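From: lab user (bench 3)
To: helpdesk
Subject: output format question, protein + pentane-1,5-diamine

Hello, I'm new to running complex predictions and I'm not sure whether the block I got back is the full result or only part of it. Here's what I submitted:
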Amino acid sequence: MNKLIRVFAAVVIASLLLLFAINRLNSAVGFSSDNTLTIYNWGDYIDDDLIDRFEEETGMKVIYETFDSNEAMLTKIQQGGTTYDIAVPSEYMIAKMLEEDLLLPLDHSKLPNLKNIDERFIDLPFDPGNKFSVPYFWGTVGIVFNREMLGDMEITSWNDLWDPAFENEILLIDGAREIIGMGLNSLGYSLNDTNVDHLEKAKAKLDTLTPNIKAIVGDEIKMLIANEEAAIGLVWSGDAADMMWENENLDYVVPSEGSNLWFDNMVIPKTAKNIEGAHQFINFMLDAEVAAQNTEWVSYSTPNKEALQYMPEDMVEDERFYPSPELTEKLEVYENLGKKNLALYNDLFLQFKMHRK
Ligand code: N2P
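Helpdesk reply: Thanks, we reran it on our side. This is the complete output you should expect:
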């Protein structure tokens, strides 16, 4: 009996020692929650070398996950399975997340590099005073097209896409607001229209584009168009810029009927565990040289004014990707249309996708 107790005690002590050792080891390699930073960002939206550099400089361990739409990101954050320290939603989604009380206020004293951001991108209506969000990238929605494949056919408007000559030549990004938005814009309606009749007309008009649509895809759209698998794509500006570095036959246009101007900002979800680390990461990404390196890799347009001096001139001076304030004023920023209307956009988009099958 005595022996049994001794064996039992030895096992307990050994287990405790083991647990202690694992714990020490975990924090040494950075798995304790303080030392881990979990980031949720769009696909292809950061230079991985910068994550390595941040880890080296801070000793933190970054866990990095990606999403391909604002809606998917929101669902994941609402479900709360994984807790994220940083997310990068677009403006209308930030407004929605604020409405649902999902974001933490930022401590500006920990973000001295915020001064590097061009004031054009500061204090916008979806987040007055940038209390909850800090600019990351911005851009437009438009059409990328292959001049070589299209011969002398010009594309300048959304309505050009309905030309029967483009049968099976168009790829679309998988975004409800972008695609329904194209339908709305092509009929002269606003991207923030909530009139059910207008929205149904937009969906019906999109259905008539079906013969020209080759597929609705995610980030692989860049590879497909750069490899000339399709001549035309509805894309976000930076994806077009990226493809154009790969294939010189490509060009990008913001359609004449109007289009979307968007802003993706970094936020800290309320459920974040490493709030200090999140601020460190945001401030790191706001550094001028870091932002320049990231922008060169990602190809989207940077809101970081101080970064521009470190970037190639032909990139900064390209008006297709750095449109003037006069042009951007003509574009529409998505508004948070409320639960019911956003659900309607999503439903119509789903129906449109099913109609294609
Ligand atoms: C990056 C997509 C950027 C998204 N792949 C536009 N909000």
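A quick orientation on your result: The first helix runs from residue 2 to 29. Let us know if anything else is unclear.
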